[in-house]
Predict the structure of ATP synthase subunit b, chloroplastic.
Amino acid sequence: MKNVTDSFVSLGHWPSAGSFGFNTDILATNPINLSVVLGVLIFFGKGVLNDLLDNRKQRILSTIRNSEELRRGAIEQLERARAHLRKVEMEADEYRMNGYSEIEREKANLINATSSSLEQLENYKNETLHFEQQRAINQVRQQVFQQALQGALGTLNSCLNSELHLRTISANIGILGGPWKK
């Protein structure tokens, strides 16, 4: 029995040339296993890997083409927006200039209208002052005339007696040539 046990132990450690056994030396078996696995993967997985890489390449190229188209579209849109902006800026400048000239025109019109109104008011004021002066002068003349007339009448009444008074009236009627003249 010892021989059977020794043969298993010897198989575990030192495999013989024609027998099957487990090699427990990891450093010796890993490169062999890896090369076998890689060989199988390369042989069988080469087509699948090529298909995956081709699909990936086509997707990347398609994405690049789409990105280029989007970029061109964005550039065109940007140029249209810039042209529209220039147009709007020109219109805004035109409106601004028209607005300024319109404001200046309105300002000049307002100044002219105000000047005209002030001139009319000045004329009305002068006319009113002249009218009031004439009225005051006329009132003063009337008062002076009334006072002079009252003074003359008072003087005549005191100086004239009734006979002289009647002769003066008759003489004045005679000068005037009234219908009472005989």
In short: The helical segments are 2-13, 26-159, 162-176. Residues 33-167 form one domain. Residues 3-15 have pLDDT under 50 and may be disordered.
